[in-house]
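REQUEST ID: PR-0412
SUBMITTED BY: lab tech R.K.
PRIORITY: routine
TASK: structure prediction, single protein chain
INPUT:
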Amino acid sequence: MDGSAADGGESALVCVRCSKPARLQCPKCVELKLPRANAAFCSQDCFKVMWSSHKSVHTEARLPALRADSPEEQISAALGRGWLYCLKKGQNRTARLPYFDWPGPLRPYPISSKRLVPDNITKPDWAYDGIPKVEPMSDLQNTVEIKTPEQIERMRETCRIAREVLDAAARAVRPGITTDEIDEVVHEATIAAGGYPSPLNYHFFPKSCCTSVNEVICHGIPDARRLEEGDIVNVDVTVYYNGVHGDLNETFFVGKVDDASQQLVRCTYECLEKAIAIEKCLALIDILHEQLGDYCTLECQQYLERNCHSTSETGSKIS
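STATUS: complete
OUTPUT:
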């Protein structure tokens, strides 16, 4: 690790992992002349823990970007590289813009070829032919499984990896980058952590993550379009690791966005937080039912439900 962060004003940097004062720099980031704020660590331990996701920043810096001046020129440049539009739910390609009753100004751009996954990475059954086999027939489609402590621990580990992958994608979001480049970052960070990017070839989905820009609600396909100042983009990441999937997403501002976009993102985040609070309260009610049995009356349940629901809005506590 490069210790040059200790000199001068760089001592104000904080560790990317734990936010403690940082005095070390990733040597590869220094070599590539990347921003120091994203390469600062307080110790070798934090650097080692973050390495699997952090090194995707190096990949991003080397990506050959499409830097045409207009959408038409950018599409032409992508087609010139052999990129094509996606058709038939991922099963076909074409050099012509497909027809659709578009709900807004956004249009799809050509996409790059399917990214490769090393042989040593454990893969879900759809990785080879695009068709999930275990999932549709699983009893879990109709029942809720009570997870064992061992399953929960695997889920936590996989979700931690997925969070680090999404953080790597977040660092790449900026005006001028293509969503295909973000997909490259997600793909490389997932592989580096020993995982498989679950969206890849799921029902023939052609990419390793979903990037949904502006009016695209969800499951947008990463392509050659550059993000523009004022866009919002949702990046949806799922990692398959150690037999379980970790699925999470987040919406990011691209530069400065208008008030309506800020309100939309803020409102949806608040809805998510309130839904989580309600779920926690419902879980508490179930625990009380289990522990108190017949002693937990209907009036008791109604009281708990009222107070649980108010917790997410007023901060009231259950006594």
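NOTES: Residues 259-292 form the longest helix (34 residues).
REVIEWED BY: pending
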